[in-house]
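Q: For a teaching handout, I want to show students what a protein-ligand complex looks like in token form. Below are the inputs, and the small molecule is zinc ion. Please produce the holo structure.
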Amino acid sequence: MAACSSGILKSSDREDSEGEINLMDKMESSSKGDFVGNVSHYIPLPDCYKGPINKGHLLFDACFEGGNLGRVDYVSHFEYDLFVRPDTCNPRFRVWFNFTVSNTKNQQRIIFHVVNFSKTKSLYREGMSPLVLSTSRPEWCRIPPKNVFYYRSPDHQRNYVMSFAFAFDNEEDTYQFAYCYPYTYTKLQQYLQKLDSLGKDYYKREILGYSVQQRNLDLITISSPENLKLGSKAKVILITGRIHPGESPSSYVCEGIMGFLMSDTREARLLRKHLVFKIIPMLNPDGVFLGNYRCSLMGFDLNRHWHDPSPWAHPTLHATKQLVMRLDKEKETDLEFYVDIHAHSTLTNGFMYGNVYDEEKRFESHAVYPKLLCQRAHDFSWGKTSFNKDAEKAGTGRRYLGDCLHEHTNCYTLEVSFFCYTDKETGDHIPYTQEGYVELGRNVVKTFIDYYQLL
Ligand SMILES: [Zn+2]
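A: Here is the structure, written as tokens, with zinc ion included.
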């Protein structure tokens, strides 16, 4: 595996940066069904082919929740060019893919080329590989990195192309390939229904608003019942996830946070006793449903609209901002933390972006939480954590809220790599599993025990 990138951040390494733009911007797509623009039960064949459809004529489909594949070109019986479908109403973003392949032949070997990523810098250079599962092997696993290649392709206008080789081993199976572990809107709804069914008095679920396509904007509150009574003084920790829909690790981190806070451990009881956790696990449910990478249904990067969210164009962000402003104003509430959870497509590890303060004491206290998280979480990097006030980031939650909330509110972006973390002792790259992301979520909440010295 290639060595980890250096500690020096280029502009494309930074939080939220979309990086360099790939040249191939022209896209065609087939549009069928509700999942506009995705291929639908499509069998690419050579131009001259007039014969029957046989086993081994691969059938591609991305018309399902969170699916993304805009076009497939037949190159040869063993080779296909795949095109990521751009975000709805925003052709600039093409990263997330998620599709199925069936009608395979036993031991059929193929090479897929993903040819139109919108970014050039990628963790594929560091050894990241796509995820795969199949009907008979339903757990996601990463394709061996030795079968994955990322390079400038002379056959594709010298665009960066990610090629991977794969052998289908069971012709009855349907295979699914994805950029990262998918986490759909439906999966979140099912998880929240499970939490609802526990009937705990320290858990409350509200619908804070609805998306343009009328999906729930869920708000989960977890704290001891005494803290939830009107008029009680409370320290509030606000956490949001999935403002960028393709950043599915964010949802696993959120699950880790909610799961730990709901548990019956002594630590969880202490956290509930002293703090109120408010969690919005999916800020962009339409984008998640549609299989977008970065934008909402209407093509907005919601994390650039915090300064002026519109109730009709960005309803989920508008509702979230109203909640934040209310928490900020309420006399009995101390909004102490805002953490917005993302996933990073060019850097490894978990790390944070924070704000810059002129007053030294304030700046030092702002650095305490990420330092403590670093002590808890073996995958969290203090070295990659940075504090900035770039003008480009002015519309992000971390920057905007950092400027306008009470001085004592700490606002951070928490990033976690789509790929791996570096083992602090051995220096090895350890690829993240779903459980690894969940574990980071647990550590995010446990760190508040250290911060508030609750034990
Ligand atoms: Zn993001």
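A: Two things your students might notice: Confidence is low (pLDDT under 50) at residues 1-14, 23-33. The radius of gyration is 22 Å.
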